[in-house]
Design goal:
The chain is α+β, with helices and mostly antiparallel strands and 369 residues long. It contains 12 helices and 10 strands.
Amino acid sequence: MIERIETLQNEGGAAIAAALDPAALEELRVAYLGRKSELTTILRGIAELPPEERGAVGAVANHARQELEGLLATRAAELEAAELEARLAEDAVDLTLPGTPPVAIGHLHLVSATRREIEDIFVGLGYRVLEGPEVEHDLYNFTALNHPPGHPARLVQDSFYVDPTTLPEGALNERRLPPGPRDVLFRTHTSPMQVRAMEAGPPPIFVIVPGTVFRRDTIDATHLPMFHQVEGLAVADGISMADLAGTLQEVARALFGPERETRLKPDFFPFTEPSVQVDVSCFACQGSGSLSGGRRDPLCKGTGWIEILGAGMVDPNVFEFVAGYGYDPARTQGFAFGMGIERIAMLRHRIPDLRLFFENDVRFLEQWR
């Protein structure tokens, strides 16, 4: 009996010393000192031994139990210390760093962030993103877009002309600017790239053109002489107004929420025929026109709809200017659309004044980090 107890003590001590984690150590405790362990059974059966054996066996068994308990406690402390040391090594703190994380140096302006989001939506629909010159020829900005000289639609945009005769000597030929102050201007929309894109290749073509545009305008809560716009053009066989409506509904839902609906109302734009105004169902009153308590919704002015952009089927007169590039005015069909980036950002984020985008007030800009 005594030999068996010593064997259990030696086996248990060796196993405890080799334990690699607290879970293994707990299993050994149960195996050697648990209620059903062999050593515990021997201790419980001492009373049944002959009287002359009880003292010797009891002393050896109690000593073995105490030894194993001590080894378990020592090994548990060693494993705990090793675990703490490893954790400290992994979670080491660099005391040379500042106590609080530094503020990021900068972030995208809300207009730029909105522009990128619009670009991502259209890229997902298969469109290419193009950019064009901000100083444009009259031909591309007006004439080729069905705005001939004297057209009434020029009156609100016909501004910001560049006079190349005021350039330094020699610059006129280097910059390839035509003579006269009425031929070159800051673009009033990004639509000139529609004509340039069609000149670059035959249909099908699906492009959007984001960028800065300039117009003679008053400065108030909803108008500035400089703002940002996204124009789009789609030309392909069999394309129709239904394709335009479906495309713009998907865009509206991506921008304003999946439950949004759109509607098309007759309108006029010189380079589209027919032309439409595109409205989205109001996301403040959910299209009802009324807020809680029956109050009139100021965002949609009680109509349940908000205007977001203009669009239409490309006028055949526009295709006349690119007929030599594979766009037969009698057979080619396509649609075009244009939206103001600031207007989309204002609607999405309930910003009341357009001028906030350009005043560089850090308190405003930091809200869109």
